[in-house]
Design goal:
By secondary structure, the protein is α/β, with parallel strands linked by helices. It is built from 28 helices and 12 strands.
């Protein structure tokens, strides 16, 4: 017999006649102030514009189960989707209770009964919270103290502290902040007398419930496909948890997933895309969910002879296999990007190279080959591989290959990692081959305005910085011309450089430095000594190459510019394995 699926629309007052549980495998409460205010504003505006209208707030996907507490049987619902809105309504009710004057006993009673059922030993009725937060014991304790208890939301100093405590559980931090936000909303003149009755009697939610966990997770996915905004990672987690029957095992993997998600936050889907690439080794043709379903869990291959698709061996199985794969590669990621134990003998070369690639590259599809290599070889010759990866990835970018071709080249490296007999064979593979003449042509000419210019100058800066300390460029970086693009006609620049010389040299590597703040055009047009003693010296202290130039050159003539260009270009080309006789280098520079 097919499992029964219930669906119904309910007003908020009826929503809170049911009993809910936030299961262990659910995400934390993640709503921030903007999302809470948006809900409050939307409901309040609806109550003002048409007090008799109905306002649809959202949906819930539930897994229903029968519970027994003493002699009382009742239905409880695991909340798979809708947690953020329902929790926010729960917190709003607690704040309304505490802001309501004591003589309005009816509203206070309504709020209390919405939040929890009071015990009645005479009728054998136990005390029970309307929403049970199983995601963390600390969250349960927070709810008991600051939500369930009368006056709990008024404990300003304690709640403010919890909202700002970075070491606190994410759910607690965000719930505390939500309480402060809700209180601030009503303190700013919004009427409880208008808002709360409308919220209770005019605001609707839709719920869909079934008794089978796998069916509930399937509904969770279907709701997303019909426009309920869920992240790919949420649905992927739900579909894999549905395959795990043991409660303890499911809880373990759910919490592990939550921890990984908490690390990556909004970049979690992107991390999962890297793992997809590690497995599939080809450019994605669908969204993340369809990629996992069709290319990982149930891959097929077209048989030209029979003109049919043949099932291939799955790259991963749903359930524990997927969770183990995600967790292992998360640990690889942490080892690469967070762990300094491999930086031996006081050298931070590996850390610094990774920093350069993370902040310098415009795209991150180099991360999949790096994770794949680490999964196979760990730290053995890791730095050598990283340099090869950097050279190939950046050179493809510099010579102007289309993104699709660059992705194909990155995937070719993935296939070579998997197929090579050993590291020597891998490092000698043609997948790392670069087009030296194209690189030479690109780097000897004007680079300012090119997408890769910032990366190239950062690469030069790292070369002068060295590896005895960590390479930590500031978040705000700008490229500055030493010889300005538009010097004043009365300036020394015009006396020292002819028009054709400025046209040829202004945008070349040797005339560019990095600043630690956005450039100032007015100061950037000053003569060299003025810029050097004032503007530059205040903004280059974090960049080794910029400091070197200002300490080395008292003037900035054409000879000075050419000298610096030749030195930095020689260093840069060497990083790509390009060395030229002096005569050939000078000829390339002068072209």
């Amino acid at each position: 017999m097919a499992p029964e699926i219930k669906s119904e629309k309910l007003f908020v007052k009826d929503v809170f006649l049911k009993w809910y549980r936030i299961p262990e495998y659910q995400r934390p409460y993640v709503w921030e102030a903007d999302q809470v205010v948006e809900l409050l504003d939307d409901v309040y505006r609806a109550s003002q514009s048409n007090p008799r209208s109905q306002y649809f707030l959202g949906s819930m996907v539930l897994k229903k189960s029968d519970k027994q507490d003493g002699n009382i049987r009742y239905e409880e619902h695991d909340l798979l989707d809708g947690q953020q809105r329902l929790t926010t309504l729960f917190l709003i009710t607690a704040v309304v209770r505490d802001l309501t004057p004591a003589d309005n006993k009816a509203r206070i009673k309504t709020c209390r009964e919405t939040i929890y059922q009071m015990a009645n030993p005479d009728d054998n009725i136990p005390e029970r919270s309307r929403i049970v937060f199983d995601i963390r014991d600390t969250v349960k304790n927070f709810v008991d103290k600051y939500v369930k208890a009368d006056g709990g939301t008024l404990k300003d100093e304690e709640i403010k502290h919890l909202s700002q405590e970075n070491d606190e559980d994410m759910s607690i931090r965000n719930m505390a902040n939500a309480i402060l936000t809700i209180r601030g909303f009503f303190k700013n003149g919004k009427s409880l007398e208008t808002f709360f009755p409308f919220l209770r009697s005019n605001v609707l939610m839709i719920y869909v419930a079934t008794e089978e966990l796998e069916d509930a997770f399937h509904l969770f996915t279907v709701m997303n496909n019909r426009g309920i905004k869920l992240r790919n990672s949420d649905i992927l987690k739900a579909e894999n948890l549905a395959r795990i029957k043991d409660n303890n095992t499911r809880t373990k993997y759910a919490k592990t997933w939550e921890n990984i998600e908490g690390y990556f936050t909004e970049e979690f889907d992107n991390f999962l895309s890297h793992l997809r690439t590690v497995l599939v080794k080809q450019k994605a043709g669908y969204n993340l969910l369809k990629e996992f379903e069709e290319n990982i869990y149930a891959p097929k291959e077209f048989d030209r002879n029979t003109k049919t698709y043949i099932n291939k061996t799955p790259l991963l199985k749903k359930g524990e296999d997927t969770f183990e794969f995600v967790e292992s590669h998360y640990k690889h990621y942490l080892s690469l990007f967070e762990d300094d134990t491999y930086n031996l003998t006081n050298s931070f070369e590996l850390h610094n190279q990774l920093t350069l690639m993370r902040i310098g590259f415009e795209a991150d599809y180099w991360i999949a080959p790096l994770l794949c290599y680490y999964a196979k070889y760990k730290t053995e010759n890791l730095l050598k591989f990283l340099h090869l990866l950097d050279v190939k990835f950046s050179s493809d970018w510099i010579i102007g290959l289309a993104p699709t071709k660059r992705i194909e080249n990155a995937n070719a490296i993935l296939k070579e990692i998997e197929g090579a007999a050993d590291q020597n064979a891998l490092f000698a593979s043609p997948v790392f081959k670069v087009e030296t003449q194209d690189i030479l042509r690109s780097l000897t000419g004007a680079i300012y305005g090119r997408g890769y210019a910032r990366y190239i100058i950062l690469k030069i800066d790292l070369a002068y910085h060295g590896h005895t300390t960590k390479f930590s460029p500031p978040e705000t970086i700008s490229i500055e011309h030493i010889l300005p693009q538009t010097p004043d006609t009365s300036s020394q620049w015009v006396a020292d450089f002819t028009g054709p010389e400025r046209d040829k040299w202004t945008n070349r590597l040797g005339n560019l430095i990095l600043l630690s703040r956005r450039k100032n055009t007015a100061q950037g047009n000053q003569d060299y000594r003025q810029k050097r003693e004032g503007y530059f010296q205040k903004n280059v202290e974090l960049f080794s190459n910029s400091v070197r130039i200002l300490q080395t050159f008292n003037n900035w003539t054409l000879d000075d510019l050419k000298r610096n260009h030749k030195e930095t270009l020689t260093m840069l080309l060497a990083s790509y394995g390009i060395t030229l006789p002096i005569a050939d280098l000078e000829k390339a520079i002068e072209q």
